[in-house]
Every structure is written in structure tokens, then in C-alpha cells.
Sequence to fold (283 residues):
Amino acid sequence: GCAVVRDGSLRSEGTPMSEPVLKIEKRGPVDWVTLNRPDALNSLNPELVDALNHYFESLERDYDTRIVVLRGAGKNFCAGLDIKASAKRNSAGGYGADTQASLDGQRRIANIVMKMRRCPQPIVCCIQGAAAGGGFALALASDIRIASTNARMNCAFIKLGVGGCDIGSSYFLPRLVGVSVASELILTGRFIQAPRALAVGLVSEVVEEADLEKAAQSYVDDLLLTAPLALRLSKECLNMSVDAGSIEQVIAMEDRNQILCVKSEDFREGLTAFLEKRKPNWA
Fold:
């Protein structure tokens, strides 16, 4: 299990108080969430997997948190699965003890990206250094990605003797960059560097590593200018539209969302603020 501590960080039970595996800094309606295992390249050990699941699940009905910024401590975003921790757990009768236990361990990691998509808050991801395997999956499951000039991302799975399609990569990548580039990355495990990631639309911006927080704050500022309900419904609608079977389904969702928003107090405030040429004060 995980414990929420006074500073808003998440750590597994038994983790030293000075070393949360997941740090959560609340800045008003924005959560700045940091993978905090820099000595292990922020790799996903069982404790961090549990903490991420716990955190993103908690957001589904959290109306105070409007935006999430996801980042990694140190020089790398996330190097993927902690192979050493996984091997240790296998030998101790954990994930790899039998088929059911292996599937349970696999699904616990995959659940993170599903909860990231399900949570109504937009997720801005800051990527520096390596985002490999499961770390790449966390970036792909985010809504907006910003990369440092030294960022490098890959589907590392296929290099480990397992399939290249893992933790949602075969779902997200073709939708973000098209089937051709997705096939190259998934089938070869090659790294994609920041300049090319920008060129193919995988990331929105490339900045110096020292400027990542500033760049993320710029997107946060724009997101905070939107009405809370409208922003939540927009993420939901985008998720639905990506998999919609027809334009009729998309229009039905859009029409429903617009009427919900039009009936809100924020819509009246938005119109008034626009006419008065000022920033809106959302209810």
C-alpha cells in the first residue's frame, strides 16, 4: 500500500520518510508530480508502480486539482521497468512466479496509463534524458509533451526479448505519429531524439533542460485560463473522438458537452469577460 504524507508526496509503506518514491507538490490547482528515484533513473519498481496507480486513480473525482505536470528527478525522466527489482520479485514468488502472478504484475503497470487517460485533468509531461520502455509509455499517455534537447525515447521492450507493443505503446504511438513511424520505433526499439520527436509531432516543444519547468508553466497558464468544466469535458471528448466509429458519434459528444457548458455559470462569466476584455473569474 501507499501512504500520503504531509507534504503531499506518495511513498510505499516502509520507505524512509526522507525518500518518497513519488513527490507531489501542490501549487494551487496544479499538481507538480515528480518520479523520485533519480539514482535508479526513476525506473519503475513495484513501489513506484503502486504510487502512480494510487495517485492517478485519486484524480478521477478530484475537482480541486485542475492540471498535472509529470516529470522525473535528476537527469532522466524514466528508464522504464526496474529490471533488478523485477528479477528480485520474480525469484521471491512475485510477478513471475506463475502465469497469473505475471499477468497481475503486467496489468498493474498497464493500469497506470489507463488511469492517466481516465483522469479528467490534462497532463503536461516534461521529458529530459531517457524516457525508455515504461517511461516512454508514461510520456505517451500524457496530453502535452515537452522535451529537453537531450531527451531520447524508445520502446525498449523488444530489446529485452518480449514484444515491442507494451503498456499502451501500440495504441498511443500510431495515433500520435502515424503507423509508419510507430512501426519503426516499436519493431526496432530505436531511440527517437528530441529534434525528430518535434518534427513528427510527438512533442510540442523542445527546450534546454534548465527551461523545462518554465516551458511547462506556460502551458499551465494557458490551461488555467479555461473554464474547469469545459477543460475536463474537452479531454474526455478528445479521448472518445480518437476511437469513435463515426462523425455522428463525435458530433453527439460535442453537442452534449457544449450544452452542459452553456448551462453553466462559467459560460456567462466567459462571455462577460470576453466583452469586457479581461480575464475570467471562474466559479
Observations:
- The two ends are 36 Å apart (CA to CA).
- The chain is about 45% helix and 15% strand.
- Residues 99-118 form the longest helix (20 residues).
